[in-house]
Design a protein that fits this description.
With about 160 residues, this protein is an alpha/beta fold. It contains six helices and seven strands. Bound molecules: S-adenosylmethionine. Its main location: cytoplasm.
Length: about 160
C-alpha cells in the first residue's frame, strides 16, 4: 500500500465511490471518505460498482471534516485539492508520495473554507465552456499522474 492517499469530500453517488474504491484497490491506494456521504456506505450500489475489489480497498471513514483534519495533522501530510477553480494544471504540479489528494462532492465540490485551507489547488484543464469531469474520472487522472511522478506504479 502506497502512502499516497485519495480523499472524497461527502460523495453523493455510490457508483462513483465504488469505481474509485476498485481503482484504489488495484493501484494500492487508500481512500478516505469524509462523511456525511449522500448514501449508506454499505449501499449495494457501492459494492456493485466496486465489485469484490471494494472489499480489498483500504477504506478509512471520517465522521466529518474536522476528524479528517485531525488525522491529517497527526500524519503531517499535504492536502492537494483537485478543483475546477484550481490555478495549477495537474501535470505541472510536483506531487509528493505522502500527499492526500482531495476531491469534492459531485453536486457542489467543496465549501470555500476547505478550498482555502488546502495546501495546493490543482486543475485538469478542460475545453472552454465545459463545467467539470465526472468525479471518478478526475480521480483516476490525478492519481495516475501522481503515481507516475512518484515512481509508485508497479513495474512490469
Ligand atoms: C462533478 S465535480 C464537482 C462539480 C461541482 N459543481 C463544482 O463546481 O465543483 C466533482 C469533483 O471532481 C473533481 N473535478 C472534476 N473536474 C475537475 C477538473 N477539471 N479539474 C480538477 N478537478 C476536477 C473535483 O474534485 C470536483 O469537486
Amino acid at each position: 500500500m502506497h502512502s499516497l492517499s485519495l480523499a472524497l469530500f461527502q460523495p453523493d453517488i455510490p457508483g462513483n465511490a465504488g469505481t474509485i474504491l476498485r481503482m484504489a484497490a488495484c493501484l494500492g491506494l487508500s481512500v478516505h471518505i469524509i462523511e456525511p456521504a449522500g448514501f449508506d456506505l454499505s449501499d449495494k450500489a457501492l459494492k456493485r460498482a466496486g465489485m469484490d475489489y471494494a472489499a480489498q480497498a483500504a477504506l478509512v471513514r471520517h465522521i466529518n471534516f474536522d476528524h479528517f483534519e485531525a488525522w491529517r495533522a497527526q500524519e503531517k501530510r499535504r492536502l492537494v485539492l483537485a478543483t475546477t477553480k484550481g490555478a495549477v494544471g495537474y501535470t505541472n504540479f510536483r506531487f509528493d508520495p505522502s500527499d492526500v489528494l482531495l476531491f469534492g462532492r459531485e453536486s457542489a465540490g467543496v465549501p470555500d473554507d476547505v478550498h482555502a485551507l488546502a495546501d495546493a489547488r490543482i486543475l485538469i484543464p478542460m475545453h472552454p465552456g465545459m463545467r467539470s469531469l465526472n468525479l471518478a474520472i478526475s480521480t483516476a487522472m490525478v492519481a495516475g499522474e501522481a503515481l507516475r511522478q512518484t515512481g509508485a506504479f508497479a513495474v512490469t
